[in-house]
Structure formats: C-alpha cells, structure tokens
Design brief:
- With 315 residues, the chain is an alpha/beta fold.
- The protein is 46% helix and 11% strand.
- It has a four-stranded parallel β-sheet with strand order 2-1-3-4, with helices on both faces. It has a two-stranded antiparallel sheet with strand order 5-6.
- The longest helix is centred in the middle third of the chain and has 25 residues.
- The termini are far apart.
- The relative contact order is 0.12.
C-alpha cells in the first residue's frame, strides 16, 4: 500500500472511531440527568428537618397540603402513588397519622419506612402513665406533638443525617455539615426559651387543643387544654366551666387557639373572663401565607415565644 493510500485509509478509520465515540450509548448515558431519590414526609417539622439536612440533593415531598388540619388529613390515590414511588417514607407516628399505619403494610420493598416516634422521647397521654422503652406506640397512648420539644427536633436531625447518608453515601459529609449547622440553630432557640420563660408572673398555658404538652413540660409550665390531643374532639360544658373558673382564679391574661381549628370555644372563654384570645402555632402544618413569607420552624417558634412571654408576663 503506497503512502497516499495509507493516509486515506487512516483517515477513514479515524472517522469511524470518532463517529462510534460520538454515537456511543455510554456517552449518551453520561449526558442524561440522574434523578435524585425521593423522600416523602408527612408533617411540617419532618419536612423542615429533611430540607435542612438534605439541601438540594434529595427530592423532599411533603404529603399534607399547606393550610390543612393535619389531624384530619387522609391521602388521596395520587398522593398514595407518590409515597409508593419514594425511596424513603417518613411519618410522625404515635397515632398522629392513623392512615399511615395501614398504608405502610402495602408499600413495596423499594420504599423504606421510618416511624419517627420510635426514635424520640415521648410523653404518654393522660391516663397512660410513663413511657416504657421499646413498647409499641398505640393510637392515643402517647402525645404525638413531640416536635415542640426542641431536644426531639435535635434527635430528628441526627436520625435523618444518618438515614440520608445511607441513601446517598456520596453526600454524607454534606449531610453531616448541614445537620451540625441546623442543630446549632436549634440549641440557640432552646437557650432563648429557657431564658425567656425562666421568670414569669403566671406559668399557666391555656389552649383550645392539647398540642403544647412537650413545650410546657420542657419549660416547666402548667398545661391546660379545652379539648384533648385530637383537634376534632368536642369539649364538655363542665370542662369549659372549669377552665373559666381557672382563668379567673389564676388571673390568666390570654387564651390561645390554633389558626386551622375552630376558635369559638377559646373566644367564648375569653369573653367570659375578660382575657385575650391569641393564636399560637403548634407547627403541625403551616399556611400558604406563612410559606410565602419564608416562615420556618425556627421563626415560628421564635414568634410563639414572644406571645408566651407577653401572656405570662415574663421578665
């Protein structure tokens, strides 16, 4: 083969190799974007912790729509399908989402399930005594509003750092740094509550719904509620009369209610006693307006502290 023919042949081979490389399936796969694992969470507190730890590395999907009473929520078929397609489904537990207990039995093996109530410190509901480690969390046995104890939020952050690191090991260092930063903010918030509620003229916290037991216990407040742990309960006339007498006897200045729950009873007690009716956010969920104004667990808890200090006449 002469020199001219060798040059032509070499050019043809080079063109074939370049063409094969260009249309190579291997390279095409590299050009495709890889979807992030999906994590479905039930309550707002779980959503906030998940976002704080994962950043943009995971798709965090909140299940309960904004502005909805989380106690009354039940997922529709489309929402169930979304949970089924998740790599991780995290729910509050302790009887808060009765629908989740049945749903988790039907999920595929590709969806890992975490009942966060099994990982944190719980308070037994009235009449159920103390918490025994390792026992099952039957509906109504425990107060499910455990995220209002800031120590539990810290524990939830540590749990999700560990679980997300298993789900995406390449991002474990990022998750560790994000969790440490968020825990630092929670510890600062806890210090502000301890100092802010240390010296108060009145330590009685009266609410329409028994959602603040953890906050009251952590800060040595007396927690009194018009109805029980579920927002759909109806108060008895005797309970309302007893609370009116308590408000008058202790000189309570404020009756708290929740924005997503009917506040008629709180308003009635306020009128009968001359106290003020004031909203207090239990963070079971947030409204669309709160989301638009960039409200978070930290900012709402800070606002709650200001309202509590004013109501209890703290120094």
């Amino acid at each position: 083969m002469d020199t001219k023919r060798l040059i032509v042949f070499g050019g043809i081979i080079a063109a074939i190799v370049i063409g094969m490389s260009f249309f190579s399936p291997k390279l095409q796969i590299k050009q495709e974007s890889i979807a992030s694992p999906v994590v479905s969470v039930s309550t707002f507190s779980l959503y906030e912790v998940a976002r704080a730890v994962a950043g943009e590395t995971l798709e965090i999907h909140p299940i309960i729509p904004l502005g909805t009473d989380a106690h009354m929520f039940s997922p529709n078929p489309k929402q169930v399908s979304g949970i089924t397609e998740s790599a991780l489904f995290i729910y509050n537990g302790a009887g808060f989402e009765t629908w989740a207990e049945n749903l988790k039995q039907t999920l595929p093996k590709t969806t890992q399930v975490i009942d966060m109530s099994q990982k944190v410190a719980l308070i037994k509901s009235e009449g159920h005594g103390e918490h025994d480690q390792g026992e099952e969390h039957h509906h109504g046995m425990y107060d499910p509003h455990y995220w209002l104890d800031i120590d539990n939020m810290i524990k939830m952050t540590q749990i999700l750092e560990s679980e997300f690191s298993k789900l995406s090991p390449a991002n474990a260092e990022l998750y560790h740094g994000n969790a440490a930063a968020y825990i630092g903010k929670l510890q600062k918030l806890k210090s502000e509550y301890t100092a802010g509620l240390a010296e108060c003229k009145n330590r009685t916290l009266i609410t329409n719904h028994d959602a603040f037991g953890y906050l009251a216990k952590a800060n040595h407040l007396e927690n009194v509620s018009v109805i029980g742990l579920s927002s759909d309960e109806q108060p008895s006339a005797k309970n309302i009369a007893d609370i009116i007498n308590l408000v008058k006897e202790h000189g309570v200045k404020t009756i708290f209610f929740e924005e997503f729950i009917n506040d008629n009873v709180s308003q009635t007690i306020a009128r009968e006693t001359g106290a003020k009716a004031q909203s207090l956010q239990p963070l079971e969920n947030i409204s669309e307006d709160e989301l638009k104004s960039h409200q978070t667990y930290l900012t709402i808890m800070d606002e709650n502290l200001k309202k509590l200090r004013e109501a209890m006449e703290c120094r």
